[in-house]
Amino acid sequence: MADFPAAAESHGIEPEKPIRGNAVTSSALRVRFAPSPTGYLHVGGARTALFNWLLARQCGGTFILRIEDTDQSRHVAGAEQKILDDLRWLGLQWDEGPEVGGDCGPYFQSQRLDLYRQHVQRLLEEGNAYYAWDTPQELEAMRAEARKGQGPAKYRRPDPLPTIAQGLAAQQEGRAVVVRFAMPPGDIVVQDHIRGEVRVPQEELEDFVILKSDGWPTYHLACVVDDERMGITLVCRGQDHLSNTPKHVGLQRALGFRTPEYAHLPLIFNMSGSKMGKRDKHTAVHEAVTLKMRNAGWTTASVAESAGVDVETAGRWFGDKKGGRKPEFQVLEMDALRRLADAAGAVLPEIDVHDFRASGYLPEGLSNFLNLLGWSAGDDREQMTRDEAVTAFSVERIIKSNAKFDREKLLALNTQWVAAVSSDRLLAAFRDWAQVSGSAMADLDDATAARVLELCRGFRTFRDVESKAGALFVTDDRLVYDPGAVRKVLEKGEGRGYTMLAAVLPLLESADPWSAAELEARVTRFCEEQGAKLGDVAQPLRVALTGGTVSPAIFETLELAGRPRTLARVRRCLQRKGG
Ligand code: GLU
Predict the structure, then answer these.
(1) Rounded distance, CA 528 to CA 270, Å?
(2) What DSSP letter does each residue of 212-231 carry, written as one string?
(3) Given this model, what pLDDT does residue 152 score?
(4) Interhelix angle for 363-371 vs 407-420, to 10°?
(5) How far is the C-alpha of 481 from the C-alpha of 474, rounded, in Å?
(6) How much is the pTM?
(7) pLDDT tens digit sequence for 289-314
(8) Distance between CA 461 and CA 453 in Å, rounded?
(9) Separation of CA 235 from chain center
């Protein structure tokens, strides 16, 4: 390892002691999760965060959270807060980072710009970087030549290199001037904990941009400077970053930094083999919109109206199969896509941690599942507590091949966790879900919420609870009657269901106390007298109360709904008949 160049001091950059040895098992382990705030926390990112967290907890190391917000064009307002919130929901508390502080802050890269510029300046002065102001046309011409096999498929370093003075002059003239790193000669070899030796030949390494023309650093520069300044000893990140690592190692060498250890995690794919990402949401909506266009007379204007965007944007998003124009999914923001999904009746697949949270998964279930994406304990164990995972986890058992995101398995694990956690824990998780998903059950008092959970026992996710009991708690005007259920249960047999409801109403009105036992006794007696089956009364009551044919056990359901709501809904239902 090169000595730290004396020049460092002249720029106010303090040299740091290299940390050696096998970082993974050392209590001096310092790992980081470094999300870019471009949206909600993706499950792939969450898996990276989890593995880093486990490694730190295992050996008493430090887990650092760093927000990589230097790409202003991709920044999404409020995304940082959402990421912090979902990390905490998953139980991945960081030791240093936003909101908790630490000795190496600030932990937002946008607040460290001076530091990056000092390093760029040093690289420039030492001849390890140079100003460049190629126009987009010139860069395209370089690429075109490469395509024709007339030149290397990479940026061609100018010879001689422009001087600093020439660069500054170009800037003065108003050119878009960037700073490129002069990649040192030689192959770069990375020892990766998971992938073994990764060798990148010199021909494949090019001079990349480290400072953009707007004065902001690129991810590469900021990441390398921060990994050093934050004393990171192991970089554990997705394999999609493997191609960046040789660049980072090149920069580390030029800056006299130590090279941390590396572990690149396998990618996560859908069961179909496609990459799991935001695109899947667009694809799901696109399919639903295509059906609407085919069967329901939808046009681009309908897409625009539903999404709340202009017709041109809607057209670009949809594309034109006949005209050979591919859909441009990136033109539609997530909120617009969600509106469009609602209108087209599409269900957005869960991709981000927040999607799973809003769908009613337990953090225990999701986290356990993420733990098994690319790693296994080596025995048959799948359901594992966090503490068990901390003990069992090891980098050696992370696989190289792509991991498959098996939603059935996630659902099964979640069901196991629902049965395993304490009732208090389940209640707390339910409350979080009800709030995040905007369920009408968010306002229930603790006792009622606990009773709902008890009556829905055996559910897989809180969304199951919603389908079973949610309708009981929406305001009466928002109750939706399923036409199929109304026909089958109420209207069939010359309105037999309605007749039953009308007949049983006085019994309900006079029930005292309003308890499941009392209601059951009354309705059972009524059925005996009428020679009717219990179902002949129970199903019409269900439809009256929930709009459909699914609910927890009927008398418990009535007790839960309470007298005023039950009576109001039965009366309302009988009025429907008249209307
Ligand atoms: N900010 C990068 C991302 O969100 C992470 C880079 C890294 O871990 O080095 O993909």
Answers:
(1) 55
(2) -TTSPBPHHHHHHHHHHHTT
(3) 66
(4) 130
(5) 13
(6) 0.91
(7) 999 999 999 999 999 999 999 999 99
(8) 11
(9) 21
> Which string of b and e fits 234-255 if b means at least 16 CB within 10 Å?
bbbbbbebbebbbbbbbbbbbb
Counting atoms of ligand 1 from 1, which one is nearest the CA of 32? 8
Bridge partner list, 33: 65
Q: Is residue 327 part of a domain?
A: yes
Residue 151 pLDDT:
62
**pLDDT for the residue numbered 146:** 81
Q: What is the pLDDT of residues 227-243, one digit of tens each?
A: 999 999 999 999 999 99
* 557 falls within a domain: yes
Q: Could you say which of 82, 212, 275, 278 is catalytic?
A: 278
Residue 338 CA to residue 346 CA, distance in Å, equals 9
CA distances in angstroms from 223 to 218, 252, 303, 422, listed in the order given: 8, 10, 41, 42
pLDDT above 50 for 200: yes
- 3-state helix, strand and coil shares in percent for the chain, rounded to the nearest 5: 55, 10, 35
Ligand 1 within 6 A of 237 CB? Answer: yes
Ligand 1 proximity of 39 Cβ (cutoff 6 Å): no
35 within ligand 1 shell (Cβ under 6 A): yes
Enumerate residues 6+ apart whose C-beta is below 8 A from 349.
280, 281, 284, 355
Q: Which residues pair with 375 in a beta bridge?
A: 398
Task: State which of 68, 248, 262 you would mutate to test the pocket of ligand 1, scoring each by most atoms of that ligand within 8 A of its C-beta.
Answer: 68
In the chain, the amino acid numbered 50 is L
Q: How far apart are CA 561 and CA 438, in angstroms?
A: 20
Q: Is residue 396 part of a domain?
A: no
Q: Which of 344, 374, 390 is the last residue of a domain?
A: 344
In this structure, what DSSP letter does residue 275 have? B
Which residue is listed with tokens 């002949």?
A: 536
In terms of residue numbers, what domain contains 297? 279-344
State the chain's mean pLDDT as an integer.
92
Q: What is the DSSP letter of 109?
A: G
Measure the CA–CA gap between 545 and 89, rounded to whole angstroms.
Answer: 34
Domain end (from 344, 376, 393) = 344
Phi, psi of 461 (to 5 degrees): -140, 165
Residue from 36, 232, 267 to probe ligand 1 pocket by mutation (most atoms less than 8 Å from CB): 36
34 within ligand 1 shell (Cβ under 6 A) = yes
- pLDDT, tens only, 70-98: 988 887 888 999 999 999 999 999 999 99
Q: Is 50 exceeded by the pLDDT of residue 19?
A: no
The pLDDT of residue 477: 87
- For residue 331, is it within any domain? yes
Structural tokens at position 48: 């990276």
Write the CATH number for 519: 1.10.10.350
Alpha carbons 305 and 313: distance in angstroms, whole number: 11
The string of pLDDT tens digits covering residues 37-60 is: 988 999 999 999 999 999 999 999
Give me the number of domains the chain comprises: 2
The residues, any chain, with a CB within 8 Å of residue 243's CB and separated by 6 or more, are: none
